Every structure is written in C-alpha cells, then in structure tokens.
Amino acid sequence: ANAKGLGKGAGSISGELIATSFNIGKMLGSGPIGYVNSDATFNASVKGRDIDGEINLYVSDFEMNGAVYAGLALEGEKSGESVKGRLTVDNDIARAAADFRGVVAGDESQLHLICDVDEFNLMLAGLAPGRQASSLAGAVTVDIIGNNLDNIIGEIRVNDFCYATEKKSLELQKLLLISSVDDSTRHLNLHSDWVEGNIEGNFKVKDIPVVMRHILSETLPSLFTDAFDKEEEGVEMDFSFLVNPVNDVPEFFNFPIRF
Questions:
Q1: What does residue 16 show for φ and ψ, rounded to 5 degrees?
Q2: Dihedral of the CA atoms 231, 232, 233, 236 (nearest 10)?
C-alpha cells in the first residue's frame, strides 16, 4: 500500500491486498464461512473522516459449509455522498448480477438497484426449508428514498420470480410494492398476480404481520387466530385486499382451500 499526507488529516492511499487461505471462520469463532482467497485493489483520497475512492475485489474461491466455491467480484466507487457499484456471483450457490447506485444522506438517502438472479441455491446456502433441494430465480428493481423501513418511499418490483423444489415450482410474473406518504398518512400499495392490496394510516412495518394475521383470521378463521388490537398496538390503519382466483399458492403449500 502507498499512502501520502495522511498524517496531516488529508491525503491519499492506494494499494493491493491479497488474502491467501485467510480463515474467516476461525477469526469469527463460528459460522458457515471457512477460508477465503481474494485479491483487492483500492485507490482512495482521505480528508478528515471523509473517504472517496474506488475498490475492486475478486474472490477466487471460498469455503462454505465444508465445500469450496468460486466466482465473486465486487466493484465499488464513492464520491461525496454518492456511491455506485456492481456485484457479480457465478458459482454453484448463485448465478446473479446486481448494479446499484445511491446517495448516503440520512433520511434523504437514495437507492437504485437492479438485480438479476438466474439461480440461488437455497440448500447450498443453508437456507432451504427442511434441508430440501430448492432454488430461487427472478429479477428485482428497487427505487427508494429513506434510511429505514419506516420512512422509505418509492417502489420495489419483482418480475419472473420462481421458487422451485425437486417436485414442484411456484411462479410469480410480477409484483409491485409502492410506498408513499400523503401529509401524515402512509400508503402501501401491492399489485401482483396473486393479490391486489392497499394499506394506509399511521403504522410501522412491524405492525403489518399482525394486520395480515387479522386479515387471514377473518378470511380463514379455522386456520388463523386473531391477535390484532388497534388500541393495544397504537395502530391507525385501513386496509383492503383482493385475492385473485388462482390456485398456485394453495396448491404449492397444500393449503386446504381452492378458488
């Protein structure tokens, strides 16, 4: 690494970091990741606590859950409040690419993300339900402003989603989630192949699962109990949902209902 002027609070630093058989698992004490072989180059300017620059990271191979995988690259750049980059993965766990750009500015932060996942192997990643062979695929686009779940406004789109196991698959052609605020009222609008919905009021994201259970308890009282209490939760919320008459979801999860 080369550094200039850092002792005076401003300067630059550049260099290359090569990790050979670096045992992350041993350093962390536990976890699925073992050793990593990687090569990173960087070039940055430093002024006080502010750092601008570029980084290129290539992981030639890494160990996860006792198996060895390869093919992971990250390119990143920061200039002032703006950041951008690209992540690519091409191995047995995942084949995917993600491009992102954003602004880091507190509650005015922004994120634009385009992610295409050809395959994400849930079993190899240790995330498969019941350890059964299963995978995900699809395209995700994110355009949001905010820095936490409760102040985000914008859109999240999912297209050509597929969840597949050895015996069956579940497909979703489109899903659009829109978050907006009008005066002090928050709006969440959902559009998809399966469900059209709207939630509005004064609420936090953590309240939504409780509301969803309330909806299900009214629709399917024999399967779901209701634990929703507006006064107890301090929630002001109106909601409406229209379930499209398709049987993909109940058939895939073996629910005892059909449309």
A1: -140, 135
A2: 0
Indicate the residue type of 145: I
Instruction: Report d(CA 125, CA 122) in Å as an integer.
Output: 5
What's the alpha-carbon Rg for the chain, to the nearest Å? 23
C-alpha 90: how far from its chain's center? 18
Contact 160, 193 (CB under 8 A): no
Phi/psi at 230 (5° precision): -60, -40
Model confidence pLDDT, tens digit, residues 148-204: 988 999 999 999 999 999 889 999 999 999 999 988 899 999 999 988 999 898 888
| Residue 44 to residue 54: CA distance in whole angstroms | 6
75-105 pLDDT, tens digit per residue, is 999 999 999 999 999 999 999 999 999 999 9
What average pLDDT does the chain have? Answer: 86
Place of tokens 């259970």: 213
